[in-house]
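Discussion board: Methods & Data

I've been asked by a reviewer to show the raw model output for two of the constructs in my manuscript, not just the figures. I'm not sure how much to include, so I'm pasting the format here to get opinions. Each protein appears as its amino acid sequence followed by a line of discrete structure tokens. Is this the kind of thing reviewers expect to see in a supplement, or should I convert it first? Here is construct A:
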Amino acid sequence: MIENINKIIERLTEWQPYINIGLGVIIFALLFIFRNVIAKSILSFAAKIFFLKKPELKDGFKQSLLRPVSIFICTLGLFIGIYINIHKPIVLNCFKIFTILIICWCIISYVSENLNAFFSAREADPRVNSVAVKFISNILKVLTISIAIVMIVSEMGYNINGLITGLGVGGLAISLAAQDSLKNLIAGFFIIFDKPFDVGDLIETSEVQGVVEDITMRSTRLRQLNGSPVTVPNSKLSEANIANLSRFVERVINFKIGLVYSTDEKTILKCEEELRAFLLAQPTISERNLRVCFNEYADSSLNIEIRCHTSTIDYEDYNMLVEKINLEIKRIVEKNGAEFAYPTTSVIIEK
């Protein structure tokens, strides 16, 4: 009996390498076939834990991480299959490095696809600054990749203390050589988080006017009203007085018309009355601070000031409203028999 058992053990020992290979193939095949099922189960369980109070974030979490986690399941099966047969440290180190890369992939994938929804849910405000989210996303990606590189170098057996010291010295040299870039980067943070303007806003400074097309870490790109693009360093914008023309509550319409000196009082008052009635009839013009009055004896004209506030914010709509008012002024003046004044000079020649 004992001899038979020993023969069986010897036979198993002889076949042990083949058994290990078969077991490794089976484990890899099972994990490969059921990788998506296992990944979905893991992510569903993790989503219930991490997003217990924010269930609307669960779907984005699972969708963004499904592919990297599935790849990790396959890699795990391959590692187990190889490690059963080749029990060497290099196999374990390769698996650690690949695991670091998968974790890096998971973080970048989640940040790219879900950061905007995360901040919206956190602030209970769907109107999250997309530029700020993009800015934070880029920083998190760079930080994640940097940490992954350091960890991989450490796993490969290199001394990272010297690397970190060298990076510190190199970083100091680069920072001294790139003071303007760092200044623009810091100014970009202030612009993005203070939000003096956003992409799509029409802004004006003492040097430039245009629509904001993009805000990056270093500069802001504007499209001027003549259609030409211009790139302004963030440091200049942060130091400038910025008028955000897209955030007006009201616009002011203020100009003067001049009538000839021969215009009588009755005609002036009639023109003012009709102009005031026309302005009050416009739904976008406020009655508050509406002013139509004869207020100046100019060199060649009797000036009537027209001043009002309009809720029309869009630049093109505003110009159309001003055109409409100008045409109505012309019609009223001509209807009442008055004439517009223009600069004149009288020359008297004495005998």
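Construct B, same format:
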Amino acid sequence: MTQLKSVKGIYKPGSTHMVGDGFPVRNIFPSQNLTEEISPFLLLDYAGPASFPPTNQRLGVGEHPHRGFETVTIVYQGKVAHRDSAGNGGTIGPGDVQWMTAASGVVHEELHEQAWAKEGGTLQMIQLWVNLPRSLKMSAPRYQTVLNKDIPQSNLGGQGGVLRVIAGEYEGQQGPAKTFTPVHLYDLKLAGGHQAELHLPIGYNTGLFVLSGGLVLNGSQKVGEAEMALCDPQGTQVDLEATGETRVLVLSGEPILEPVARMGPFVMNTEEELVQAVNDYRAGRMGRLE
């Protein structure tokens, strides 16, 4: 029996700031004090859309560490280059996704891709942080480049809706990103006036983030640009209506019911583990960029 997931709240960006010198972001959480309600997700930063003039400078975020979680970067416009202390690297452009599992610790940098920066252009992207359970926080780092061409898509409610499955699955379509925690991550494009039913697992925390355009959820709740609707874990369906050409990121995941201790780029279970993470980074035990 179908049961609607009710909308628990609609959240505007809680802060606006620059990450490094290349990513002007609007943060949805944790700046809105959402933790347990959106677990296993830890952070959502929406960068841009922002125009950058041609430059030879390497704009972005230089060498910095992470431990205890995963970073997921989704590019809509522009190009971003990644390099890390585990020897991984790559470039992602429009439609591509980078899924980096920091786990026990990695040092990396994220910069505007050099050739793209020389031409200049519009940058638009999202970065998510996804928590890891205690049993996996000190596992080996992992890196996945998920290219646009490898992400399956299907119609959502007819020709006016397209759903791309980045991770998890949707009605038989399996996303290419491998996850440690059960997560469904969908990228939606909806034509103005298009209506659709979105089916989601019961018991999963779910957010619908509108990058552009607007939505009416379950016939009444309006969600505008750069806003996120938080849905009740109970229920299996959300009714969507696009009020214009709309782009939506759907994040749905099984909550991790463990303590969260966080400090800057480290997310662990206890304060003592955070102190250890800082000491390990300073001692070079997370590696260095060559």
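Answer (T.O., handling editor elsewhere):
This is acceptable in a supplement if you add a one-line summary per construct. For B, something like: The CA atoms of residues 258 and 269 lie 7 Å apart.
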